[in-house]
Amino acid sequence: MERTPTGWLASGTLQRVPWGRSVAAVVALGSAVGETLVALLPTSGATTSTSTNLAGEPRDTLTFVTAPLPADAVAPAPAGVNADWLRRRGALVRAVQIAGGLEQILDLGVEYAQQRTQFGRPLGNFQVIQHQLVQLAGETSTARAAADLALRIVGGANEQFAIAAAKARASAAVAPAAAIAHQVHGAIGFTQEHRLQLSTRRLWAWRDEFGSEAYWNTQLGRMALDAGPNSFWPALAVSHVKQGE
Question: What gap in Å lies between CA 108 and CA 61, rounded to an integer?
Fold first, then answer.
């Protein structure tokens, strides 16, 4: 961001903007003279390169080159709001979405196993299918529990640890959970007409957005090392709940 007598000039690239081709403006973080700023950027001043994620949802690249902005389109960012803060909030949203998507494919799997018959018996009567659905339920439950805990302590002292754990756990659950759901459904689950692929393709996309499983596991490791050996076990064992709850 560059200050001018009448406003600002914005230069930079925003990658993987959801529906960037369709929106009139985007809100983004920028900087000038070491200060973090929040800017409202009209997309009419950007060059747009279109792309999609695995679910077919638009994820576009917007490039601004000295795009003029009025003075009131830029303001100092609130205290504590920076790129890391934004990534954490995005990761928390994706963790919650993944948990919801896992619940959806679990429901679909149970429903299909009850309705579909093979060799004169419902699929759900076969022990191997039961074991698969139990594993899917376990992946779903752990992802939901981690996301729920992170939601409870947003703004608390252990927010970073909880969000990192929630996104890492949710992202890790996607591959085995989606594989089981598709194994239970068979080929029909891959068709455009079936509801299952609407959820699994989004799960595959969301697991890497705002940081992958590997990224957040790395952050957890760094936080554990920075905290030292005396803080590691309390960080895992103590209930992280805001005071007053």
Answer: 35
pLDDT tens-digit map of 64-78: 999 999 999 999 999
Range list of β-strands (E), 71-217: 74-76, 117-118, 121-122
Domain residues for the domain of 217 are: 83-237
- Specify whether 37 is located in the same domain as 134: no
- pTM, to two decimals: 0.91
Q: How many CB atoms lie within 10 A of CB 115?
A: 10
> Model confidence over 144-181: pLDDT tens digits?
999 999 999 998 888 999 999 999 999 999 999 999 99
Total number of domains constituting the chain: 2
Asked whether residue 244 is assigned to any structural domain, the reply reads no
In whole angstroms, give the CA distance from residue 99 to residue 103.
Answer: 6
Distances from the Cα of 122 to the Cα of 104, 116, 128, 130, angstroms = 21, 6, 12, 11
Query: Same domain, yes or no, for 88 and 184?
Result: yes
Cβ neighbours of 170 (radius 10 Å): 33
Q: Are residues 32 and 106 in the same domain?
A: no
